[in-house]
């Protein structure tokens, strides 16, 4: 049985995250997920909406995941690969080449991302939605209700 590891923030858990974890599980092994801590995300300049404890708990409860570990730094990956006896380090293809330095310890795989979905895009959409004045939203819902009534 192979040991597979990946890392991520997993903020606003979405279908792309689930697809990644399912793909890792399909490789036929034990799946370990390093979830970035709030402090590490801050160092990376990332703002998270969901606290680490909740993100880790969500990921831990996905049936494709065997173990969740905290990700504190970029440097810990090499140590984790050795510590957990990792056979495959897998991550999204947007990181292509960034983790090749691990290839002397394990197989490094860059996996295709799910099209048309990303946490960054979800956050942008949410920000745009929240910037719509409340009065405009109320008017839009009133118009929708009037149209619905007309169709009845």
From TrEMBL:
GO MF terms, alphabetically ordered: nucleotidyltransferase activity
Pfam families: CTP_transf_like
Domain of life (superkingdom): Bacteria
Keyword Transferase: yes
Record's keyword annotation contains NAD: no
InterPro entries reported in the protein's UniProt record: Archaeal_FAD_synthase, Cyt_trans-like, Rossmann-like_a/b/a_fold
Keywords: Nucleotidyltransferase, Transferase
SUPFAM superfamilies: Nucleotidylyl transferase (SSF52374)
Protein name: Glycerol-3-phosphate cytidylyltransferase
